Amino acid sequence: MVIRGKRNIKTNSLNYFDSLLDEVKKEDVEKIEAELVNVESKETQEKCEVVVSEEILLDKSGFSYINNLDIDNETKEFLTEEYKKYFNFSANSSIWLGAYYQNLFDGLGKRDKGGANQYTSTYADYIENVLKVSVRTAKRYRDKYELFSFAKDIKVKTMIAFLSHADVKLLYDNKEKIIPYLEKTLSPEEMENLIKSSAIENAKQEQLEMKDKTFNIDINSFQDKILTIGERAANIFNKEILTKEEREKAIKISKHIKEIEKLLF
What we know:
- With 265 residues, this protein is mainly α.
- It has helices at residues 13-23, 26-40, 42-47, 54-58, 61-68, 73-89, 94-111, 122-129, 135-150, 154-161, 165-172, 175-182, 188-196, 203-212, 219-237, 244-264.
- α7 (94-111) packs across α9, α9 (135-150) packs antiparallel against α10 and α9 (135-150) crosses α11 (165-172).
- The two termini are 30 Å apart.
């Protein structure tokens, strides 16, 4: 599930995210509360260190790549353990992935002599060559996790967990104003001043609307849409039992994917 409201260039971002918050259901909150156990529990992280046999590990090229990196043994051991976690839990939620990428970033920052610079350090090398994920994509998940951690209210956390990548960026750029507004932690006077002053304008939303009406494709926006579509499709294909409507959707999705592949190759 990806929460998506109707963007209207006549309304500001406060109203937009307020409408998204209204879409959050009780069962969504319960799902996120359950996932918090996987994100925060040390027991979960410890389990991943023992469930993978050495025989299986030797067959994985990622471990060989780590072993051949020109880094100290302590960092190699750190990356090996992190890869075991990723190997076991990479199918989890975007929040878990965001926490994983952030912990990796911070962990390497303490070990890497040059600091955990995204583009030149061991972090980028590991992300791109071992996990086969672009640094840019990992940053998107880290941003969502940062928003998730910043929020205190479980309903707001749930909304963030289901946001599309485009909406994560919009919220991330204004998090210190929008999230307190949604959680109603501002005083009545602060709330009134925030709305009256139009501190958060809808410029970013208007840009997205205008781009949708033209044939000029913004590659960043396009990549965000692809990631969001992939997540939503995975929610359908990963189900053990599909409803009639979901089966029809799966058939149509498969058909369109084949058409896109023909255009690209």
